[in-house]
Design brief:
The protein is an alpha/beta fold and 479 residues long. The protein is 43% helix and 16% strand. It has helices at residues 3-10, 12-18, 37-43, 47-50, 56-59, 75-82, 127-162, 175-188, 204-214, 232-240, 257-260, 276-288, 314-319, 325-331, 348-363, 372-380, 386-400, 426-440, 451-454, 459-469; strands at 22-27, 32-35, 86-94, 100-112, 115-125, 194-197, 222-226, 265-269, 290-292, 299-301, 305-310, 334-337, 369-370, 405-406. Helix 8 packs across helix 9 and helix 15 crosses helix 17. The longest helix has 36 residues, at 127-162.
Length: 479
């Protein structure tokens, strides 16, 4: 055996001094009897400073939070008492300069003739491993949050995709419509709040989506809220979210539409339907850009671009005390008024052609055009349901027609083509409009051929309006 190898085998200290882990040797009193170079390098304490002294007082005296770590609780000293091997994680050693580092260590008893004579502790610095674990946990948390966000946004994204076929409302050549397009182009690049006004079916949501897609937030979420679709208690939860257990049925935490729209655009449709209490809460959020979830204490800040829409005269509602003046002026920064279809009759041929092309794509039909007689009737009709009604008529006829040219197989709602009665109040006019639609639908409210579908509103909203206006659906088929 050569001399260097013989020396290596006969002197184990050479081996202990060469390993990368820190090694401490202890006598039964807990005093250091051995400190290898790796331990010196990691802690900054030299062997000459520690030999014969209780190391615990130098490098193991406190927990990570600074609280005292009594020696009798130290796992190394416990091994010196009971002779048991211990593997320890989630502790720290303290360096000479006062800093600390996370460690993993194993403390092993030293036996001679079946008698405990001391212990050895082998440790390593796991700072990099700990940092990696923290980064991984943070990444997993973020992935979980993104997963929740994607899941919660799924219905909104699906609705957005399904709404694309309705983009036919953005064609026209009438002076009033071109003015709307100019307004959209002007305000889309700004962060200004927009109030879109117009009758049902004029394309208010389409304008809102166009503002979003042309704006600086086009790559972020577009979140829509139909303010008329929820009762007042549920609306607050829809807008601001709720914590688990906030109310009966709140089985899990849920983000609200404001939170989902963070960084993007929030579209509040039918904002004129909000109660005064809901208006007050909305105003606070718009003023402070922060809110709390229902049942929560944490204040959540949001950055959104707000677009609102209504078919009501909000200024008239302000005058009658049904809409807050301060909220009206907060919303009415840049108003856009959409003309009804009857005031842009010259756009109907373009609109009808565009809608037919998109309907062919949607239904798989192959209609080549619209008959002259059908177009003439389209131009003579008053279209109380506006573009939405035109879409519905063309889609219905595309299903019923079997030739290459779309023709009208069913009459339009001529009841709506009568002259406007000027001695009616607004509520009386609305009530008469609902009655006319109910007659056409043989008294049906729900379903694809019901009045709610034609009037483009939720069934619950229509029933609520009917109750308020005293309109009954019974016997409409025979009236």
């Amino acid at each position: 055996m050569n001399s260097p190898l013989k020396q290596f085998l006969s002197d184990p200290e050479i081996l202990l001094n060469s390993v990368g882990e820190g090694i401490y040797g202890f006598d039964l009193e807990g005093n250091a009897v051995f400190v290898n170079p790796a331990a010196e390098k990691m802690t900054g304490w030299m062997a000459s400073e520690l030999i014969g002294k209780r190391i615990h007082e130098y490098h193991h005296h406190s927990h990570a939070d600074g609280s005292v770590y009594p020696a009798e609780l130290c796992k190394i000293y416990q091994t010196l008492k009971d002779g048991k091997v211990r593997n320890v994680k989630n502790e720290v050693f303290w360096r000479k300069d006062g800093s600390r580092f996370p460690v993993e260590y194993t403390t092993t008893p030293i036996m001679k003739d079946n008698t405990l004579i001391g212990a050895v502790a082998i440790f390593r610095d796991i700072s990099i491993q700990t940092q990696t674990e923290h980064a991984l946990r943070d990444a997993l948390t973020k992935v979980q949050q993104l997963s929740e966000q994607l899941q919660e946004e799924n219905e909104y994204l699906t609705n957005e995709l399904n709404a694309d076929w309705r983009s036919s409302g953005m064609v026209g050549q009438s002076e009033r419509f071109l003015k709307v397009l100019q307004q959209v182009e002007l305000v889309s690049k700004t962060e200004s709040t927009v109030l879109i006004q117009g009758e049902n079916g004029t394309g208010k949501e389409l304008i809102a989506r166009s503002l979003h897609r042309l704006g600086n937030r086009k790559n972020q979420s577009f979140i829509r809220v139909n303010c008329a679709a929820f009762s007042e208690p549920l609306l607050e939860s829809e807008l601001f979210g709720h914590e688990k257990g906030a109310f009966t049925g709140a089985v899990e935490r849920r983000k609200g539409r404001f939170e989902l729209a963070h960084g993007g655009t929030l579209f509040l449709d039918e904002i004129g339907e909000l109660s005064l209490a809901a208006q007050s809460k909305l105003l606070r959020v718009l003023q402070e850009s922060e809110f709390e979830r229902v049942g929560g204490q944490q204040t959540i800040k949001v950055d959104i671009r707000l677009i609102a829409a209504t078919n009501r005269d909000l200024l008239d509602m302000v005058g009658s005390g049904r809409f807050r003046m301060d909220l009206f002026y907060r919303l009415n920064v840049f108003p856009i008024m959409l003309p009804p279809l009857r005031e842009r009759i010259e756009d109907i041929p373009l609109l009808a052609t565009e809608i037919l092309a998109l309907t062919n794509h949607k239904l798989g039909t192959k209609l080549r055009g619209i008959s002259k007689s059908a177009l003439k009737k389209f131009m003579q009709y008053s279209w109380p349901g506006n573009i939405r009604e035109l879409q519905n008529v063309i889609e219905r006829e595309a299903i019923l027609n079997h030739g290459g040219i779309l023709k009208l197989s069913t009459p339009l709602l001529e009841a709506f083509s009568e002259h406007v009665v000027t001695n009616q109040t607004l509520d009386e006019a609305i009530a008469q409009h609902i009655i006319n639609v109910l007659k056409y639908c043989d008294g049906r409210i729900s379903g694809p051929k019901g009045a709610a579908t034609i009037l483009d509103m939720p069934e619950s909203t229509l029933r609520s309006k009917m109750k308020k206006l005293g309109v009954k659906s019974r016997n409409m088929a025979n009236s």
